[in-house]
Amino acid sequence: MSVYKIKLIKKETVAKDTMAFYFQKPNEFQFEAGQYADYTLINPSQTDKEGDTRSFTLACSPYEDDIKFITRMRDTAFKREMRDMAIGTEIKFEGPKGDLVLKQNESPAVFITGGIGVTPALSIIKQAIHNGISQEIILFYSNKTVDSSVAIYELQKLANLNNNFKFIPVITDQPPAGFISEVGHIDGDMLKRYISDLSQANYYLTGPTAMVKALRQILVDNKVKKRSIFTEYFIGY
Predict the structure, then answer these.
(1) Helix (H) or strand (E) holding 53
(2) CATH, residue 131
């Protein structure tokens, strides 16, 4: 694991109360899709009890030119600093970390996530499509509303262009007219509508702790072996 100083090159709003931050990628930096890194502010103008370091998924894929993270914009000193940061500002970057990476085999890979927890799946799916792998990949992505969903239209486009990737958006509120999605909460019955045999897939669960624990229990109750379930909890994002 290495430590770098990286420069901010772009920032943009990508969903309701959600921003993406792009940085120059060091030439020697390598990672696997699904991993994360630590980002530390250098001499910030403000701080608070949560400190100057955050861990974020590398929301980019290894084939892409830049480093990127995506985050909900809570009112903390760190995120105020990021929101107002001038292009060209350097921050400290340490990584890669984590082992939530795609297990490439004959089993379907099923990602189940919500909110900002989609970022590991986004990185992994884009890299898998870029690499041209033939493994079946399914993504269930839950949000309260369409406008709070990260990359939802990009994911729809990827699914439309790739037969090996199936995307199921799930909206807990009523979606807008004309938007095709599941409505409500992800449960065993919903999974069975898209997966013929739940026991034959590998599952990647990411997102808020309560959601991940509930999804894990749904899978176990449906006879999925624990060794086929991989999890990553998003805490305090």
Answers:
(1) strand 53-57
(2) 3.40.50.80
